[in-house]
Specification:
Layout lengths: L3 E5 L3 H13 L3 E5 L2 H11 L3 E5 L7 H11 L5 E5 L4 H10 L1 E6 L4 H12 L1
Parallel strand pairs: 1-2, 1-3, 3-4, 4-5
Length: about 120
């Protein structure tokens, strides 16, 4: 069974790009456009990696990562954000992010980060 990657972002174009790039690599992708929907998917599907944006319309990405970590401490999290201040990086790591992926990012960077998270 291929690894399941949960993508949580309200930018539909970004989600579609991630779906296409990760799908070509053979990953099974799940997507949510709100943090709350991402939390529901975490509970139902137990993804292998959670890839979430920091700023979402309802629950922020840090809360999504914390929830994933509470459900299963081994689920690696990746936080996508254009705001990569030292404080944001520290808060992301405290919430369970293995990696902070600065936006915008290339397809190669996305694949490298997901591959790293699955190791």
């Amino acid at each position: 069974m291929p690894p399941k990657i949960l993508i949580v972002d309200d930018e539909r174009d970004l989600v579609e790009t991630c779906l296409r790039v990760l799908g070509r690599r053979g990953y099974r992708c799940l997507c949510a456009h709100t943090g709350q929907h991402g939390i529901v998917i975490i509970d139902q599907e137990r993804p292998d990696v959670v890839l979430t944006d920091l700023y979402l319309p309802d629950v922020d990405g840090l809360s999504v990562l914390r929830h994933a970590r509470e459900q299963s401490p081994t689920i690696p999290g990746v936080l996508m954000t254009a705001y990569t201040s030292p404080q944001t990086i520290t808060r992301a790591r405290d919430a369970g992010a293995l990696v902070v992926l600065p936006k915008p990012f290339s397809n190669v960077e996305l694949l490298e980060v997901i591959d790293r998270a699955l190791r």
